[in-house]
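User: Hey, quick favor. My workstation is busy. Could you predict this chain's structure for me?
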Amino acid sequence: MRIAVVNYCGTVGKTTVASHLLAPRLPGAEMFAVETVNETAADLGLPVEQLPGSRFGDLFKVLLACDSAIIDVGASNAEAFIGRMAKFDGSHLEIDYFVIPATSGTREQKETIKTIKALALVGVPGERIRVLFNRVHDDVVDEFAPLFGFAEQTQTCMADPGASIHENEVFNLLNEKKTTIAAVLADDTDYKALIRSLDREKDAKRVQLAADMHAIKSLARAVQRQLDTTYASLFKAAA
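Assistant: No problem, here it is.
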């Protein structure tokens, strides 16, 4: 699959979605960051080709020969990306799904709706625009009522309550460590045993680091299972 992660609004978790949800479940996918300002998956250690939205034509040519891709479109480049895509007739067909991460703030939901409308104007059909509800605190339907109402009324996107990621401290911890859930879980170090083997006074820093990593791995295992469910819901009925 070739998936673009896009929203006109910043800080809704586009890079989190690309790095932690999509990349581990699309092995071998090429990663592109349409970004000039903010963090990308490259900051978490993933191989990423970076380019601005104004160079959509270059990306379009690459996608013609690409079976699997993840395109993380930064908010600062989203308008240019969609605008340039509109100029290449039928270019949206080279992207199988547009994933729109959203958070529950009023402004964020308004910008999400604006993004969906812009994609619809380009010609992207509703079944290929998938809303991902991010940083959910409790009841996803209640927190994102405007988005669910918009989706039901206009049929311009797919909005499944199961396509959600709940608020979890592990994402901030991973950003601090500049790593991903997949990388943490691939690390076979027994940090608990390591802690017991160290002198708490002489090796205080190593003990703290090992304790941090043990805690992150514990959180990451639970979140990984949740993300499996999220991914299945996000692409439910996907052709």
